[in-house]
Amino acid sequence: MRAKACRLRAKVCRLRAKACRLRAKACRLRAKACRLRAGVCRLWAKTCRLRAKLCRLRPKQGFASAICRIEQHLKPHPKKTAKP
Questions:
Q1: Using CA atoms, how far apart are residues 57 and 68, in angstroms rounded to an integer?
Q2: Tens-digit pLDDT profile for residues 16-48
Q3: Domain locations in the chain?
Q4: Three-class SS state of 75
Q5: 78 Ramachandran zone, left/alpha/beta (phi>0; psi -120 to 50)
Q6: In degrees to the nearest 10, what's the CA dihedral of 15, 17, 23, 28?
Q7: Beta-carbon contacts of residue 51 (< 8 Å; ≥ 6 apart)
Q8: Is 0.70 surpassed by the pTM of this model?
């Protein structure tokens, strides 16, 4: 009887270990995806800052002015968003 219980316990233990390894793998993958997403976010922030700089420096020149117009269009209008 004791041997049977021991074998069962060993089986459960192996299953737990397998589940744990799978969880760890999923966790590593999630962390990798998270790091990639953070990198993309940083890139976006960088381009946004550059665009804002261009806007301030040369508001009436070709490329920069086009970006300026787009950005102003994207920004919510203060009078429209302010609620009494």
A1: 11
A2: 999 999 999 999 999 999 989 998 888 888 888
A3: 2-79
A4: coil
A5: alpha
A6: -150
A7: 67, 71
A8: no
